[in-house]
Write a structure and sequence with these properties.
alpha+beta; Trna Endonuclease, Chain: A, domain 1; 4-stranded mixed sheet; globular
């Protein structure tokens, strides 16, 4: 594994996968952008949740956007990270279709093998 954070070992499989993928891509000189914005809701308590959501929607967040965007040598890749049994939501499937219509590679990543060839 390219990155292992002991403090996060009890967190979700997808979050550990995000750290591993981001570390791997950075080692390969990719620019990595974390798009998992709504994950920040865990820090917004009580009445802060609604303004947080409204703010990010105004900033362009849409449901279904990928977890990460990776860029290198003028190419852009949308990456949706999923655990072994994780499934895409209907919004994620719609986002994938939009990417594919626009010739933007969209990759469902369950482990580093899914990134071979980038």
């Amino acid at each position: 594994m390219y990155y292992y954070n002991r403090k996060r070992k009890n967190k979700s499989v997808e979050h550990n996968l995000q750290f591993t993928v981001a570390s791997y891509l950075k080692l390969r000189k990719f620019i990595v952008i974390d798009c998992d914005i709504m994950d920040g809701l865990k820090f917004a308590q009580g009445t802060l949740r609604y303004p947080y959501i409204v703010h990010h929607k105004k900033m362009g967040y849409i449901k279904g956007q990928p977890d990460m965007i990776a860029m290198k040598n003028g190419k852009v890749y949308c990456l949706e990270l999923k655990s072994e049994n994780g499934k895409q939501s209907k919004e994620q499937k719609a986002y994938q279709e939009m990417c594919e219509r626009n010739n933007i590679p969209y990759i469902i990543v369950r482990d580093l093998e899914d990134l071979r060839g980038l």
